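Hi V.,

You were right to ask for the full record rather than a summary. Here it is.
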Amino acid sequence: MEVYRNNEKKRVSALIDKGWFNNDPGDGEFGGHNYKFILKNSDNNFYQPILNDAKEYFKYNGIEWWKGNEPTGHTLSSQIACLNHLFLIRSDKEAVLSVLSVFSNDFIDVLPILTDKYKPAYISFEQVTDTDLLNEGKPSRGSICTSIDACVYALHRNGSKWIIPIEWKYTESYADIDKSTGPSGGIRRQRYDGLIFKSSQLIYDKLLERKNTYYYEPFYQLMRQTLWAEQLVSHNKTETNCADNYLHLNVIPLKNIDLLERKYACSRNDMPVTWRSCLVDQSRYKIISPQILLSNISHKYDKLKQYLSERYWSD
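Predicted structure:
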C-alpha cells in the first residue's frame, strides 16, 4: 500500500483547494484520466522564480521532460521536485558548497559542468556521459539511457576531482518485478552483467546472481547509476567531466516508508540495508532527505525554503 504517496496526494490536493498553485484548480489530465493532484497548467508546478530558466535550460540543452515534450503538471513528479529544490542555487558556488557540506567537509570547491552547452553552472540535470559507456546506445539526456537526475562536479581537498551523481526520489515505490526476464530482460543482462562483473564497487556473487537483486527496482536504477559513475571515472581521459572519484547521493524523503522500509523479495530486507549489502565501499553511497540537503544554504534563500517547506516538507 502506497501510504506516503496517498498522503502526499491528499496534502497537495488540499493546497490546490487553497489556491496555493497560482489558483490552478487541479483535475488535470494524466495517462488518459483526470486527477485532483494534476495541475491544469504545468507552469504552476514550478517554484515561479525558476520557471523560465528551467524550461530554457531543458530546451537548449536538448533534455527530454518526464512523460513528454513539455513539463508535467503532476505535482508528485520527482523531476519537478528536484528542479524546485536545486535549480535556483545551481549558479551560486557558495550555495552548492553548502549543500555538499551537509554530508562531507572534504570538498573545497565546485567546478562548472561544461557538458551543459546552455548556461553551464555547478549543478547539471539529466546528466549523461559524452559517449556510450553502458552499452545503451547514444546517450540522450532524460530518455532511453541512464540519465542522472542532478550532478555536481567538485574538487576534493586532496586535489582530486569528484563527480557526485544525485538520484532524486519523492513518492516512488516499487513492486517486486524481475527486470531480467523475457526479451527485454535478456537485453538488460547483455548490457550490464559484464560491467557488474568487472565493477570494483558492485558485489557480484552467486547469491546476488541467483536473486537478481540488481534487476529489481529501485536497485536496478542504483546499479546503473553506480556503473555510470564508475565508467565515467574509468574514462576520465576522454570524458568532459574528467573525474578521479565519485560519491553517489540518494535524496529520499524520510517519510517515504513505502520505498525505504518495505521488505524487498529479492533480499528480504529494507532498501538501505539491501543496497548497502551490494556495495564494496559503502562510504561512496549516502541517503539524505531533501530538507537536510538544503539545511546549510544561506538566508538569502529563505523564500525558496519557505516554498519547499509548504510544498514538500510539512506534514
